[in-house]
Design a protein that fits this description.
globular, DNA-binding, Dna Ligase, domain 1, alpha+beta, three-stranded mixed sheet, Arc Repressor Mutant, subunit A, homodimer
Chain lengths: 144, 144
DNA sequence: CCCGGAATTGCAAATAGTTTGCATCTGCAT
DNA sequence: ATGCAGATGCAAACTATTTGCAATTCCGGG
């Protein structure tokens, strides 16, 4: 049984062609994808699938903790990425929207600190860094 | 001229009743608001305004750097808050969606580090911490 | 103070993203 | 192999947001 099938089974989800393909797509891409990107990729791979199924699958998997769903500053749609134990953050270019992953996360101690200070049970965080990539910066896109 | 009128003028925006009211609302609330929340608040205050105007105003003001627009994990709509020089982050309850502000931000050095490492021109970041508030935690909403 | 042009607003209609109802199909335990 | 709970496809509904256009308002110059 493949690693992906194991993930599904352990979450109590049926292992279907579409689910395996979607998880595989999220695993291979190193960047977060919108539902439609996943759908397009499925089509490219000739996996029969409907956009509703993609949405439903992504939601179900989020609920089961296999993937994470989030929104980006000023973007009108949701992005999804595989849940990773060693989590990463992204550097998002305000000019061209390109995202690149950043290694390392400086927030573990901070979370503990907050937890102690607030009585909340912290489960995680989302951090995105915004800026201009070298190309957009030199193209003057950051002049306001 | 009020502080708010100055903000508008300095950004090159006309000072209209709706804009002043919207800025005032965002300034008074200590939490981020969705467009509709702003609209409802305007109605409450008997400020004549249309939902499109609210959206347009919020967008224009984001572009001019007066406010910030962002998305929350798993929420289908955008939130807006006044831009603050001393910025804050929020602790968001996964159970009841309540947000509370957290004082202090541990990321300034981290940004410099990233800037040095990547050649990007960093302009800021968005950090939200997710967890369960004491009420939701004891109500067992975090058991999966 | 009044006027004109440009910016802003209201309204209604369009769009984008996402969700849902229901009939059909499929994976998996027996 | 068989049955049924869970998954999918399709079309229609919904929610959040955007847009075109005509009417209105702001603001600088006369």
């Amino acid at each position: 049984m493949s690693e992906i099938e194991t993930m599904l089974k352990e979450s109590g989800l049926k292992s279907t062609k579409q689910r395996r393909a979607i998880l595989e797509i999220l695993r291979k891409k190193e960047l977060p994808l919108a539902a439609e990107d996943v759908y397009i990729e499925l089509k490219k791979q000739n996996v029969p699938a409907n956009l509703s199924t993609v949405y439903r699958t992504l939601d179900t998997m989020s609920e089961h903790g296999l993937i994470q769903k989030f929104g980006l500053m000023g973007e009108g749609r949701a992005y999804y990425e595989l849940f990773r134990v060693v989590h990463r953050h992204f550097l998002v270019c305000i000019g061209c929207k390109k995202m690149i992953p950043i290694q390392g996360c400086p927030l573990h101690e901070y979370e503990l600190e907050i937890e102690a200070k607030t009585d909340y049970k912290i489960s995680g965080h989302r951090l995105d860094i915004y800026g201009y990539c070298p190309e957009c910066a030199s193209a003057g896109k950051n002049i306001e």
